[in-house]
Amino acid sequence: MRLFVLSRHAESVLNHENRINGDPNVPAPLTQRGREEAALLGLQVRSIPLDGCVHTRFGRTLETAGIAIEGREVPLAEEELFDDVRVGELEGWTLEDYRSWKREHVRADRFPGGESLDEAARRYAEGFRRLLGGPYRCVLVVSHEIPIRYALNAAAGSDNLDAPVHAIPNAAPFLFDENALAAATAGIERLATGASGTRSPR
Predict the structure, then answer these.
(1) CA 20 to 30 Å from 83, out of 6, 77, 128, 137?
(2) How far apart are alpha carbons 45 and 62 in whole angstroms?
(3) For 88-113, b where at least 16 C-beta lie within 10 A, e where not — what string?
(4) Is the pTM of this model over 0.85?
(5) Rounded mean pLDDT of the chain?
């Protein structure tokens, strides 16, 4: 059986400040709490025979991954398809202001200078499809809240990428076998194409 372990990065300084970040060039290191969360993630996957660990271009995912696999000979690979949503001019906004903007728009609307949630969802589906077509038998994927939320809801057959699961805790492992990840990929693609007129909370 192939196993895909998806985890959000551990707490970063921007999480602590309740600010959004869609630019991988903006530094957002882990907090002390985040480093402890990443170490706990490492303990949780210690007995899993990982043959790879994928992270995004964001430093907080690489830092989380490095702590989680410390002491193990697990190769790291960067995959930008799992990068956080590109929010463009909303970079650095507070979560409250970001959510206020979203309440006035639908999923197909692009963030000024960025991408839309539907575009991000299709990007995530492409990333999951690439994982499925890759060589990994057992891989840890450290990314961001939204791709994991979408995968969980789509795999469960939900008609809403943001429900019933919404909040994804930092550095918590979610396990998918090959069939579940394939179902998630197909569901994300279907919903990102057909639900563009709906509003979506983050």
Answers:
(1) 137
(2) 16
(3) eebbbbeeeebeeebeeeebeeebee
(4) yes
(5) 95
Give the confidence band of 198 by pLDDT, cuts at 50, 70, 90: low
Measured distance CA(67)–CA(175) in Å, rounded: 19
Residue written as tokens 């979408």? 150
> Tokens 């463009």 identify what position?
88
CA–CA separation, 156 vs 161, rounded Å? 10
Model confidence at 194, in pLDDT bands (50, 70, 90)? confident
Pick the CATH number of 3-194 from 3.30.2310.20, 3.40.50.1240, 3.30.565.10, 3.60.20.10: 3.40.50.1240
Domain range annotation of the chain = 3-194
Residue 118 has pLDDT above 50, yes or no: yes
Secondary structure of the chain: what % helix, strand, coil (to 5)? 45, 15, 40
Residue with tokens 């706990």: 40
